[in-house]
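Cross-check.
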Amino acid sequence: TARNGGTIAANNLTTLSGVDIALDATGNLATSQINSLTRGAVTVDGVAADFSSLTDITGNSFTLDNGGTANLNNVTTIDGASFFVNDGVTLALPNVTSYNVAEEFSADHFFRASGEGSVLDLSGLTTLAGAQTVFTYLNVEALEGGKVDLTGVTEITGPGGGGGNRRGIQVLADGANSEVDLSALTSFTND
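Predicted model, tokenized:
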């Protein structure tokens, strides 16, 4: 993390795994060259982050706060990732077509848009698949006027083995103007 006028000069860094990054207006860290960022966390607070070379964010989480944005237009792989979009911004991942919940014991994954005008645009997704591991969930949440756009999803397949196994995919729209758009959905199995 670079802050308070600091700079991390790592312009050749392309692959990160298990690394957390916090970006805000007080520091400098080049991100446009990164192509793989897995199993970590990124927080973008009040700045525009350029991740234009990024294609793989398996198991990573992205949080956008205070008007922060992130260019994830070239990402194609998001299995096990989480997204938290806040404060009226849009996060779009137009090249992602599928999502598989990670096989991790007792893990929660999120597609969350919170606050009026906040949009998580995953409209290119066609399938969502749940994990077989117990106590593992994908929580799709539109809160306080947020929108999660899953208009391309035709099939949601949760885990097999019955609902008593405490795992699956949960969908919640809570608050005025909150919307999870699953308008193309034809099959939702969450046994």
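The radius of gyration is 17 Å. The CA atoms of residues 20 and 41 lie 5 Å apart. Passed to J.P. for a second look.
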